[in-house]
Amino acid sequence: MHIGIIGYGKMGREIEKSALSMGHSIEFIIDENNTEDLNINNLKKIDVAIEFTTPVAAFENIRKCLEAKTSVVSGTTGWLDKYDEAVELCRKKNGSFLYASNFSIGVNILFHLNAMLAKIMNSFEQYDVEINEIHHTTKLDSPSGTAITLADSIIKNIERKKEWKNEQTANKQTLSILSERKDSVPGTHTIKYNSNADLIELKHEAKNREGFASGAIIASEFIKNKKGVYKMEDVLGI
């Protein structure tokens, strides 16, 4: 598979490493020094573009890929106010687009378990729930996209929770997300259900970035030659 990498930070480098180890070729790499190379001529040379940049740049990068009818996989978080616009453009161009807040297979299993547990806990009001997330100090968004995905699923399935806030709150209708930033932490997410009697936790702790990168490659393999809008649930069959 011929891949273009858009964004060459820590994740971009890990994606390059994973792609090569899995037998794929890297046709181009875009970073802040050569943004003009993200053009239709280069996009026509690849099967899939993998986009990990910044919230400010993500939508424009995705738009260029879809306009060129190049399949695009994006893992950038913090830009989702334009997600529906990207979906509409993908369908208009009969393109192929996959977004995930987290490409780790383990995290996507956590998403599934989180939804299942929230449905169960809807009936047990003695438990309050909060989310804790820890990431490296260079992460630009807070809370993380993964934490927001977890929170949205809890709110969807627990009627007593109406919103989330990125702070500790005593409001029983508000889901607290507590964010910490520490050096060299790839990502840890914990969902806690606490009552006077006991504590239930779901936790995922990334050991490194390898799981995120290999998941992005697996998603790229899945989306190649497909048309439509996809999520990691489609890739993993969850």
Describe this structure in words.
The chain has 8 helices and 11 strands. With 238 residues, it is an alpha/beta fold. The strands form 2 sheets. A 6-stranded parallel beta sheet has the order 2-1-3-4-5-11, with helices on both faces. A 5-stranded mixed beta sheet has the order 7-8-6-9-10, covered by helices on one side. Helix 1 crosses helix 7 and helix 5 runs parallel beside helix 6. The longest helix is centred in the middle third of the chain and has 17 residues. The relative contact order is 0.17.
Features:
238 residues; alpha/beta; Rossmann fold; Dihydrodipicolinate Reductase, domain 2; five-stranded mixed β-sheet; elongated
Question: Strand sequence of the main sheet, in spatial order?
Answer: 2-1-3-4-5-11
CATH fold name of the largest domain, please? Rossmann fold
* CATH class bucket of the largest domain: Alpha Beta
Shape: elongated
The CATH superfamily of the largest domain is identified as NAD(P)-binding Rossmann-like Domain
Q: What's the CATH architecture name of the largest domain?
A: 3-Layer(aba) Sandwich
**Domain unit count:** 2
What's the mean pLDDT score?
95
Ends distance: 25 Å
Unreliable stretches covering 5 or more consecutive residues: none
Estimated share of beta-strand residues: 15-25%
Rg estimate, integer Å: 19 Å
Structural class: alpha/beta
Order of helices and strands: EHEHEHEHEHEHEEEEHEH
Major beta-sheet overview: 6 strands, parallel
The count of DSSP E runs of length 2 or more, i.e. the number of strands, is 11
Continuous helix count: 8
Helix content: 25-40%
